[in-house]
Amino acid sequence: MNLLKTIQSAFAPVVESLLGEPSAVSPYLAMIKPTNDPKYGDYQANLAMPLAKALDRVPREVAQEIAKSLSGGELFDSVEVAGPGFINLRLRSEWLARQVRVMQGDPRLAVPPAERAKTIIIDYSSPNVAKPLHVGHLRSTIIGDSLKRIFRFLGHRVIADNHLGDWGTQFGMLLYGYKHFRDDEALRRDPINELVRLYVHVRNLTKGREEDEGEVSRTEEEAAHYARCLEETRKLQAGDPENVAIWQQFVRWTMETVAPIYRLLDVSFDHYYGESFYKDMLPEVVESLLQRGIAERSEGAVVLFLSPAKEGEPRRADAVIQKKDGAFTYMTSDLACIKYRMERWHPDAILYVVGTPQSQHFQTLFETARRWGYGQAELRHIQFGSVLGNDRKMLSTRNGGAAALSDLLALAVARGGEKYEETRAERLARGEEVPELDAAERQAIAEAVGIGAVKYADLAQNRISDYVFSLEKMLSTDGNTATYMQYAYTRCRGILRKGQVEAQSLRDHPPPVSLSEPAERVLAVQLCRFEETLAAAADEYAPHLLTVYLWELARSYSRFFESCPVLRADSPELRQSRLVLVDLTSRVIRQALELLGIRTLERM
Ligand code: ARG
């Protein structure tokens, strides 16, 4: 049940009759929000002031009129006008209690699947072959995978595609380096590292000096190396068996390094259609764009000019789609990729989860696609900020040198394990009951806690912000962290175990719920806000709204737990009612964490 929508639907006819114009209603309904302080009620509507302005009336009078027509129904306990015309809403406890019971009886927690299932392609992770997966790719992987889980849960058809950077002129350099300068021993030890070394080595051999207008001047020796790289690229593109086999080996090595990381992160894809998947389409893409006058030939290259030239300035191309030497670019394969996706899946939306530095690329890509006739789908760059080190500098770079992601995750797992042992010792010292766990269970906890901490910290940010990577903060047990939520979950489960409660029958046949204590009511409202939160997270592509929600839920739960005895409640009915709140809280936490891609454990 979407609580916000339910309240909005109650307001809609009233606002409509005031305005006399159904189409103008929705911006006003958007002004209904949860209150910051339960003292003022559960929700607050700030629509009377702008409404009065539009109607040329006194705000308080408009507010009172609305309040009067909403009072007395089954939904609201009180509708009060405050100040110049704020409307404070308090939901009826009996109504809330019924909703809680419905949620408890539904495996989907009363979240119905979307009426119209959309097809949504999510392009995420997308590392580059022969380069290590960096912290920069971490955000794309984590955010993309969470969006996938959210949209799938809401009943949409999601296609998860990993757009690997596995094609391009850099492979000529890599092939040349591999054939002439490789260190087999180093390759056996750490193939990606050795490939990065080879690439850097060859790039230095062929670098030359940048002259004006992007021209490069090379010594004779540099030019000779460069020519041989171009020859390797040409052979690879022409399908030369030796070069194709070596290139495939590069791809395999890369996949072997990323696969364990994906496993650790619980991330999976439906397709790994890298740039190379589109290679045969590239000439026709360029041809088609030229024919339609979207691309132009310019000094031997084929380019896109999307914006008109500025007065007195030379025209500047927005992107090159075929270079002078005939090579295609990142942009060309992205254009081919859109054509392919549109023709195969007819998606409603394609989401590209890629860092902010590529926003220019995506603007050009989307505008070109629209002109080319692929404007029917929503094309959207889901951008995100950088991960910073303690020195507030970028922790990730595009071309090596930064901490490799696998080291970082291994460290997180190790720290997760230590954190668990520390917390365990503290709990024992406080005289709490702590379960005796074997090595396998402890390892599972270390992974869930360590990886969960990294994911949660990433998803808890507003996507666009940069954030400082601090394992210590991420693993804190008393802030808005995965660790805190994981413990909150196991504490709920612990109560049910301790009371020997059959959770399944509590779900199959939910007992009546009563909400007489303020802390019970606040918790119930928060539980009922699950669906509206999910809807907002999906609409805004903002998984962090789920973390904000979880934090508030966990806090309402601990206030409830402090003031309302559960197993020792005054009557068997009250005990059952409170057990429903405990069980439902645990299920909502678990479901929300699962949508963030974070594991929970039954005991810790
Ligand atoms: N491989 C690219 C990089 O690491 C990201 C690709 C993103 N997806 C896309 N369709 N361009 O920067």
In short:
The chain contains 23 helices and 15 strands. The chain has helices at 3-19, 26-29, 48-55, 59-70, 93-104, 135-153, 170-181, 184-189, 191-206, 220-237, 241-265, 282-291, 330-345, 359-372, 405-429, 439-459, 471-474, 482-498, 503-508, 518-528, 530-539, 544-563, 572-595; strands at residues 32-34, 43-45, 76-82, 86-91, 119-123, 157-161, 209-210, 216-217, 295-298, 301-304, 319-322, 349-353, 378-382, 387-388, 467-468.
Write the layout of secondary structure elements.
Blueprint: H1 3-19, H2 26-29, E1 32-34, E2 43-45, H3 48-55, H4 59-70, E3 76-82, E4 86-91, H5 93-104, E5 119-123, H6 135-153, E6 157-161, H7 170-181, H8 184-189, H9 191-206, E7 209-210, E8 216-217, H10 220-237, H11 241-265, H12 282-291, E9 295-298, E10 301-304, E11 319-322, H13 330-345, E12 349-353, H14 359-372, E13 378-382, E14 387-388, H15 405-429, H16 439-459, E15 467-468, H17 471-474, H18 482-498, H19 503-508, H20 518-528, H21 530-539, H22 544-563, H23 572-595
Parallel strand pairs: 5-6, 5-12, 12-13, 14-15
Antiparallel strand pairs: 1-2, 2-4, 3-4, 7-8, 9-10, 10-11
Helix pairs in contact: 3-4, 5-20, 5-23, 7-9, 7-10, 10-11, 13-14, 15-16, 18-23, 20-22, 20-23, 21-22, 22-23
